[in-house]
Amino acid sequence: MPRWVLRAYGLRLSGIAARAQKQWLSDKRRGLDSAPEDKLLKAEEDFRGYYEAQELFGEPGAVQQDAFWAALRAPLPVTLRVREPCATTEEKLRSGGWKRRWEFDKAGMSVWEMDSRQYAADSEQRSWAERENRRGLLCFQELVSLVPALLLSPQAGEVCLDLCAAPGNKSLQLLEELAQNGPSEGAVLSADNDAQRCCLTLHRVLGKAASPMSCAALANAGHFPVLVEERDGDPERLPCSKVLVDVPCSGDGTARKNSQVWRSWSRREALGLQRLQRQILLRALYLLPPGGVVVYSTCSLNPVENEAVVLSTLQKWQSSLGEGRGKLPVELLDAVAICREKCGLQPAPGLCSWQVPAPQRGGPLFNQFSEVPPELLEDDRYALRPEMFASGATQDLVRCARFHPQSSDTGGFFVAMFQKAPQTSAGRPAYSMPSSQIEGRGAHPLLSSEFRPVSVGDSAWMELTRFFQLDPAWVQDKLQRGLLFWQTMKGKTEPERVTLALSMAQAVARLWAARPSDGRKVAWARLGVFLFEQLPKGLMNGLAPCRWRLHAEGIYHLSSILRSRRITLTSELLRHLLCADHRQSILTEGTPLANAVASGAGGAETAYHHVCGGVIVGLGDSWLAGVVTPKQLRILADDDVAQALLEELPQPVRQLPSCWAAVAKICRFGQGV
Ligand SMILES: C[S@@+](CC[C@H](N)C(=O)[O-])C[C@H]1O[C@@H](n2cnc3c(N)ncnc32)[C@H](O)[C@@H]1O
């Protein structure tokens, strides 16, 4: 796609997408568009030659090699995970031709797949599944990419870091695991160093979780700061006991779902990324508290990006243990055994020897660094370095898990799992509380916004609590624990249109209050779950006594604490409203709709039968955000929510189908928040 089109849509591609785009542009210039076969064959030939030389399958490998190439050429099945399983959804999947991946049942997950050609041909299933994915009921996720969060399996109260998080699927899964394993304490901090991915895709995907335990920030994983907090007057490291580094990689394991990978595969890709991958893994180990666990993953099969990173990082870590910086030893855990036990997939063990390629296509492969000719050591970006080689490799590397496409009909993937030793009597490293904070870079307006705790005396807060009559006990508890925040955009002094009040789990509030040890300010993109937002400027000025409305994301949390502004509709009225243009309907005096609005949002002192402003519109067990103007009621639901609800509405609203109840349940992450 031409760059100007992307720019027009405010998109900046990075990683594989950017490379594919660059490839497309250079192919176009060189006229390769009309002759892609030739290029494809050359790249594939090199790919094949390289991987055959690696002897991925040991001896006897020939049969496996054939199966490997055949599987890599077969399209990947479409896989989805049901976020909150219920009988209705599972019946719909079964009758629609989806097959259950039973291995994941033992991990407590409902995972389904369908042949990709069948999926492409079945437009009804496709549009249903895609809509439910947008709504957050289902999640398209490759089987193997479910593994890292499963291995980490965060427990209640733990703080997890996802250091290369965008677009956010693994963060979403971590949040679900956290919620499943205990009440709403703990947090997942999702970080990415690409501002657009962080503020657009990651922000949107985390919005699906509507979890008070989530937060996101722009950060470079290779320099991610230690977060320091005051505990009993002493500065201490905030323990992030589970860290996921799903690093940027060449992505050659995705060849089954992305044929571009064949076409654009080059040895340089892996050689160029290895330094960054190693730096990120090293940093993750450094950030880990005693006893904590790191999972390193890539969607590549290349040993240079996998075993070589693991080996050289461990060697570097071990060699610096004696340097007196209070470092603790790190152990490589048996990811192969843990995968088999947790989800029944059968990964192959990691390699203990491999070859490193010269950067140019068809060039030689080297076993030892000493074999590399001097000219290949000079290129700054693609130079061959000692840390790419297998020298010093021990049998420990077989504990890394390799997912080859032929074993469980998956994409290619790699996972390694590390654990830091428990605290020794040598004591903890001392930290000081950074006094000043340097402004971080804010390449997106969101990143420059300010978060400030809500105080009981804030006039906007008083206006809001009075208007919606929030449950006083809930309000008192949240204010006392410092869990409610204003978000103010840069340059504004008061909470404004884009300002949101947030409710957060305690651990997220602690993350916000902690100070990065490097003195920099964390560039937060989001914290917790949005509860309220300002009415658009100019809308009902002078008519709405409160300038705040409910945010759709926080509706589950709000539905139980609002004592006022609740409008209960019958299923007929709701259907009528959902089918109306813009999902709004005229309020004509004396009609059932106007009566329902007057009884939920009434006010004798106004010229109308109701008071204008934000409302919550009742759907039996579930609720939607809405706004009442002098003459209309409008529901703030997007097309997907409206369409799904309409399909399920023939039944009376009070007996909502379990599918809709599941959506409400998903939003129950922060129950009791
Ligand atoms: C493989 S993707 C992560 C996919 C993600 N974990 C998921 O499951 O949705 C790698 C991500 O790393 C990010 N990235 C690249 N370099 C980074 C760095 N130095 N620090 C943090 N993130 C980085 C990229 O922007 C990209 O979003």
UniProtKB/TrEMBL annotation:
Gene3D superfamilies: Vaccinia Virus protein VP39. Pfam families: Methyltr_RsmB-F. The active site is at residue 299. One of its GO terms (molecular function) is RNA binding. Keywords: Methyltransferase, RNA-binding, S-adenosyl-L-methionine, Transferase. One of its GO terms (biological process) is RNA methylation. SUPFAM superfamilies: S-adenosyl-L-methionine-dependent methyltransferases (SSF53335). Coiled coil: none annotated. S-adenosyl-L-methionine binds at residues 164-170, 192, 246. Residues 68-421 form the SAM-dependent MTase RsmB/NOP-type domain. The keyword Transferase applies. It comes from the Eukaryota. InterPro entries: MeTrfase_RsmB-F_NOP2_cat, MeTrfase_RsmB-F_NOP2_dom, RCMT, SAM-dependent_MTases_sf. Belongs to the class I-like SAM-binding methyltransferase superfamily. RsmB/NOP family. This is SAM-dependent MTase RsmB/NOP-type domain-containing protein.
